[in-house]
Design a protein that fits this description.
The chain has 266 residues and is an alpha+beta fold. The protein has helices spanning 18-41, 44-59, 65-98, 101-104, 138-147, 192-206, 221-229; strands at 7-12, 112-121, 134-137, 156-168, 175-183, 211-217, 233-243, 247-257. The chain crosses the membrane at residues 40-63, 69-89, 242-260.
Length: 266
């Protein structure tokens, strides 16, 4: 009797993955947008802008106190609009990139794009959050199933649940950028992001990069914690403008020094 296991396999991108990758990354960007908007609203500068708008409306325009209070949500709405537009522009750039993955990442030996693909039964009786998945690479999965007669892959359906990419750094010689690290919300905290990150680092090692770097926002705590757990070191913080010079978010660059180190892929 065959045993049905739940797998997540990390493999290189192949033509036909674009649609699912685009939707997955869109969901990840939108989730980050909501967290960013909430975080910006709690910043002291936004609170000061609300108070200033209230005071200007009351003192200079002679508005009643009740109407002045209505100005406060207007400031919040403007922050939302600016945040939405900035993320919409970012998403448009990402969509253009995803539509050209084969050319951007798969046409040379110094870059690559990977997906994490979940192998599950056609009829799922449990929610993905309740399931323990075996997370591994395509190479190890093929070795595993080659001699294991109890694993019947034909009974499983496939779904892309994660992505990551690595490309040559355009400004820093000998360094690589790790980007597009996303995992579907229902499949987080299962080791998928760690496996994706390790596969990207292993690729950087094989291609003799000196460093592998990744950027995380102050509102992606999970991303920053993932970097720290996987031996990435904080290199630099900088402010990214959202509403001119007045409202910014803190971005952190984490670096993984390679120098001949070999990082084992789970």
């Amino acid at each position: 009797m065959s045993v049905i296991n739940y797998f997540v396999i990390v493999r290189p991108f192949k033509p036909g993955d674009e649609i699912r990758c685009k939707q997955l990354i869109k969901d990840g960007v939108m989730c980050s947008r909501s967290a960013t908007f909430r975080g910006i609203l709690l910043k002291e500068i936004v609170f000061m802008l609300m108070i200033m708008s209230f005071a200007i409306s009351f003192i200079f325009f002679g508005m009643s106190v009740t109407n002045c209070f209505l100005v406060i949500p207007v400031v919040g709405f403007l922050v939302y609009v600016v945040t939405y537009l900035s993320f919409a522009i970012k998403l448009a750039e990402i969509n253009e990139e995803i539509a050209n993955i084969s050319r951007v990442y798969m046409s040379n030996m110094f870059s690559c794009f990977w997906v994490a693909e979940a192998y599950e039964p056609y009829l799922m009786t449990k929610h993905p959050k309740e399931i323990t998945y075996i997370v591994t690479t395509e190479e190890k999965f093929n070795q595993m199933t080659k001699f294991d007669q109890n694993t019947n892959v034909a009974q499983l359906t496939k779904k892309i649940v994660g992505t990551v990419s690595l490309s040559k750094h355009q400004k820093l010689n000998g360094s690589a950028w790790i980007k597009r690290l996303y995992v579907h919300e229902q499949y987080r905290r299962k080791g998928i992001a760690t496996c994706l990150l390790n596969v990207a680092v292993e690729f950087a090692v094989k291609n003799r990069y000196r460093y592998a770097e990744i950027v995380a926002s102050e509102y992606t705590e999970g991303g920053k914690e993932l970097c720290r757990k996987n031996d990435f070191q904080l290199k630099q913080r900088y402010h990214k403008h959202v509403l001119g010079p007045f409202v910014t978010i803190i971005m952190s660059i984490y670096t993984f020094p390679i120098f001949g180190r070999v990082k084992c892929t789970p």
